[in-house]
């Protein structure tokens, strides 16, 4: 049974990852860049790792049910600068002809008891892989935005002190860096360098913003969102992006940093 999380880091102000002060100031812009689908395949893992080491990705969301989750977790354990959350996987849908068709299902999404059991199972697996609770929670294809998944996920996140995507008032979530329309048609302008620079310039207000992305190599991926992953990877690793971030005075941070802000004394990250 997982215990409720109260304090994430020592209260003496020491951050075990970086051992350097991060002071919250009025007017600061903090940006978390989170890559979804970590663990879904070796190619996606490789893309997320590259975007973390050579690009702007600071956080990832782990899919615990997939065979590549173990290697993703092993990397995260050895590289604590990459914050890792849980990407709840309850099913996947593809758009064909005139509507969405279920590709696979894990549980019935109208069965509250089954949802509770599956979320608990995936949390337990996450803890077994990483030895800790997730730094944040979201879901594959945003199923947590619908009831009854939403209520169950919110209860879990509130009990453990974990932010749930789109349901934390202190985090501004931006999810429109995505290369397809709502019907699954290509939308390349929304994963372009120009669009990412516009996002950074216009859509990152003071405070904390979370930018979602899906980088990856696609040689071992057979999903609706496939070729776009490599395009995202190239843009996220483009050195011009880091230059713009610096010019705009944006600080790249992770969910670990955000969590620490809420447990460190005097509102100061260390």
Explained architecture:
It is a single chain. This protein has one domain: Glycoside hydrolase/deacetylase (TIM Barrel), CATH 3.20.20. The chain is 33% helix and 20% strand. The chain contains 8 helices and 11 strands. α1 runs parallel beside α6. The two termini are 30 Å apart.
Structural class: alpha/beta
SS elements, strand count: 11
Q: What is the oligomer described by this structure?
A: single chain
Q: Give me the CATH fold name.
A: TIM Barrel
Task: Give a short account of the largest sheet.
Answer: 7 strands, parallel
If helices are DSSP runs of H or I spanning 4 or more residues, what is the number of helices? 8
Summarize the helix and strand pattern as letters: EEHEHEEEHEHEHEHHEHE
Instruction: Tell me the CATH superfamily.
Output: Glycoside hydrolase/deacetylase
Counting structural domains, the number is 1
Distance between the termini: 30 Å
Q: What would you say the CATH architecture is?
A: Alpha-Beta Barrel
| Morphology | globular
Uncertain regions spanning at least 5 consecutive residues: 4-25
| Mean pLDDT over all positions | 87
The CATH class label is: Alpha Beta
> What's the alpha carbon Rg, rounded to whole Å?
18 Å
Q: Into which percent range does the helicity of residues fall?
A: 25-40%
Q: What fraction of residues sit in β-strands?
A: 15-25%
